[in-house]
Amino acid sequence: MALLLFSRPRAFWLKQLHQWHWISSALCLAGLLLFSITGITLNHASWFGGHIETRQERLTVPVDIKRSLNNQVKQSTGALPYVAPLPRQVEEWLDQTLDIRIGSRPAEFSETEIYLSLPEPGGDAWLALDLTSGDLEYERTQRGWVAYLNDLHKGRHTGTAWKWFIDLFAVASLIFAITGLFLLKLHGKHRPLTWPITGVGLLIPILLMLLLVH
Description:
By secondary structure, the protein is an alpha+beta fold.
């Protein structure tokens, strides 16, 4: 079966490689643009200082919210402090009141305080709630669109869906590169500079890593 497959004529392989190459390139287009541009912005962060915006809020939670949190702490069978998701009622109230998305992020519970870290691409946020007084302090810092795109490049605080996107983009990029290499081989006889240029493209990063990266 394998011998039959590899005995196919050159025209068959050209058609297959061109098809896989253009499909993978189409799938990679948006990702290649994003990661190429953010490669520059990451490498020259000082060029893109951006404007940092900080939002701070202080408020007192309703009695039923405070009671729900105190009950969760009292019902805990483990040692304090411990980490657990907020009750659904509390999560919905915070989402509506502060216009945030907590999701299933765990909070740190202690006897007197609840602390929740809310990192996000291009920014950071946190809230602290005093279980005795019911006073809540919330702070959010945003560093602008460049920082947001840079964090997408690094997969920093981007969630599961974006991590899957990066994995799929990496697979599509591998297909794009490998099919491109085979196409170079098939067309190389008629293009004398094919392999010298390919060799230079391979040699430059290797020399830089060995001689100049420290």
